[in-house]
Amino acid sequence: MKKIVAALASAMLVTTVFAQTAAPATETGKAQAKANSEMSEAQATANKKKAEAQGDAAKAQASANEDKASAQADADKKAAKVAKATTPSEASDARGDAAKAQTKANKKKHDAQAKADKKKHEAAKDADVAQAKADKEKVEAQSDANKTAADAKVDAAKK
Known about the structure:
Shape: rod-shaped
Largest sheet: none
Structural class: mainly alpha
Helix content: over 70%
Order of helices and strands: HH
Protein name: Colicin import membrane protein
Keywords: Signal
Organism: Caballeronia telluris
Low-confidence stretches: 11-23
Number of helices: 2
Strand content: under 5%
Radius of gyration: 36 Å
């Protein structure tokens, strides 16, 4: 009879120990799963913002390229008038107009490219900020998971 009671007591002790250690492990696992989910969400958000920023930069460059092509086309039209001139006076006037148009086109091209470069810089900065925020959120999520795991270990040690 004593052996049966001892065996039952031993079995109950083992069950209690497993119950105490299983709970913290489950809690730790849940915390880590939550942290992993939060980290994935943070990275996905950062990736989305980076893609949007890159798209904005690409649009700005495309717009700049159109502006530059349009400005050069206007200058080329003025330059073509030089060849159509029939008198030296008309040719001289046409050359002056062509030079002014080319100067104006160069300024427009420069301004358009500067605007595109600024947009690209802003987009890169936005992407960097988004990634930094994601990295911060990842660290915070992992820290929370580590704290939960440490708390679970303390609770298990107390029991």
